[in-house]
Amino acid sequence: MLKLGSQAQTVRVSSPSAVVVSASLSAGADSAGVEAAALLALSGCSAAGSAALGSGVPDWVKKLVCGDAASAASSEAASAAAGEAAASSVGAAASEATPALAAYDANVLTGEAGSGTGRIVGVMVNNISNSQRQNARPQRGIGSADILVESKVEGGITRLCALFHDVGQIPEIGPLRSGRDQFLQLLMPWQALYYHDGESIFCTQFVSVYNYSGLNIGGKSYFNTPVHPHVAHRNSRGRDVAYEHTEFTSGEEIRQAADNAGIGLSNLYDSTFFRFADYRTDAVNTLKGAPSAKKIHITHSASYMTELAYSGLSKVYALSMYDPSKKAYGSTVDELTGKQLTFENVVVCFADIAAYAGDSHDVQQVQYVQGGQAYLFTRGGVQTGRWEKNHPTQPLKLYTDSGEEMTLNRGKTYLAIVDNDEWSNFRYQ
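The chain above was modelled as a monomer; its predicted structure follows.
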């Protein structure tokens, strides 16, 4: 949950403009009278100014320049009182016209109003689709995710990490797959629960170095974690698929595993995952004047490509993925609902991605510390800029070309971490 104080607004009132008063004296007036008149004018005809001139100033001079000198002091006091009253009245009116905003309380992953106090949960989901037996699609539960992350892992295949703002939001989800550090690094700054089955040696190293074992459920052993046992079930869904593609979990089972490991599933957050348009003002980022982007093509590898198409009616992007076995694109659906996945925002971050050195079995490393080019797609337009993540414990930030933080619209987000080598295959229109 995000809890911040209300935003204060400052109203600046410009100082009154100076008023120059000139008096025309008759040709018969002496120079002392002229000087006196000038001094009175410069002194603002105040009682103090009049007293400073002494008694040598004729009454007619005072009257000519200031009016009735006898009432100067009272007039000044009255003016001051009236000014204070007017200022007070203006301030009250401004306060009534622009009431203070309520405290910001938004869903940490979507920016929508009303958050609860849940801890972010990231679940690793299989995305392989190479053959009949090596096929995880259509997956279950991913349509309920607030943020869906896709990135290359090894052998050109991609994997998904489904992020939920609360464990109670998670339906049956899977097939589960092993953890990778490029996803863990996105979750670490948020103290999120990372749920998977098995993990690469590099992911294990990150868990160890950054002391994240207390929030990492999935462990080293592919189907068994003695310290933090994961809880899951098998479901072949009537398919002839390899055994490793039949494992599923749910919010209830994740809660049980967390209880077993002594992990609390409540957490308070002082910021949101991305910067979102403020729900308190009904603000919307229309990307006015930005180039149109109604269709997006993302290449992760020769066999793993993603397309998103924008609907001006529903104002969301619908997700499709390339099926190598069919050599065609198909709608990415949640098997639980039969509905195609849609997103209010699409974020594409290009990065240097390459296999870890040595005998790594082609496990891919994302060079987050270098940052890279970023694209935000929302409301049918595109904004370009840069992303930064200077340390594994720091969140990923999106910035416009002018250096301001990008503003996403409230709702679900698809986040793609893409190899710089595939930039030439990236296109939108």
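The longest strand covers residues 147-154.
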